[in-house]
Amino acid sequence: MAAAVRVLFDEAAIDGRVAALAAQIAADHDEPPVIVGIRNGAVPFMMDLLRALPARWHPDLVFDFLDATSYAGSRSTGDIRLAGDLVVGVEGREVLVVDGIVDTGRTMEAVLNHLRGKKPSQVRVCTLLDKPSRRAVPVPVAYRGFEVEDLFVVGYGMDLDQRYRGLRHIGVVEDGA
Ligand code: 5GP
Ligand code: MG
Q: 13 falls in which pLDDT band (50, 70, 90)?
């Protein structure tokens, strides 16, 4: 059985930030950027973000995913593996990279290095959660939903050994998980 989760951000709080981020992204771009999600953690956030972007963008929205793995259980290995690659081309395009959380920044650094090799005109980072106190490498975060302290969070895409991703809220697993 899954242990109890202490809620940090409930569904309404998340929805409010997603709407605000979408409005900010819309204001900053003349045309929809290519949206690149970091699987698996970014998926629920990215799907809600896509739907919150202006309806006039929806016919032209292009999105794709990169697979990045840096964690075994709840501990960062610091060893970032990127599996697979984009199907869509991003050369000369504006790109928005979406992840659920930027922690040490190593995953986003690896993703940004990979994407820059494809010669996009611009790459911006959007993360729902940002843990700046944990940063080991600098990451230019253009859009952040919430800043969080140094806690291991789960829910809304974020897992502990693949569990809790389906929660509609974000929280901390209480002892005995
Ligand atoms: P970083 O490379 O920035 O240290 O870590 C980024 C990735 O580590 C995130 O995409 C996420 O998969 C995982 N991660 C970092 N912090 C947390 C956390 O508090 N909870 C969960 N579930 N995953 C985290
Ligand atoms: Mg991840």
A: very high
Which positions are catalytic?
103
Distance 27 CA to ligand 2 centre (A): 27
Ligand minimally distant from the alpha carbon of residue 177: 1
Residues 6+ apart with CB under 8 A from 46: 35, 37, 63, 98
Query: How many angstroms does the Cα of residue 36 sit away from the middle of ligand 2?
Result: 13
Task: Give 40: exposed, middle or buried? Use CB within 10 Å, 0-12, 13-18, 19+.
Answer: middle
Our mutation pick for probing the ligand 1 site, out of 77, 99, 101, 114, counting the most ligand atoms within 8 A of Cβ, is 101
Q: Give the per-residue pLDDT at 15.
A: 98
Q: Which atom of ligand 1 is nearest to the CA of 151?
A: 19
Summarize pLDDT for 86-138 with one digit per residue, the tens. Answer: 999 999 999 999 999 999 999 999 999 999 999 999 999 999 999 999 999 99
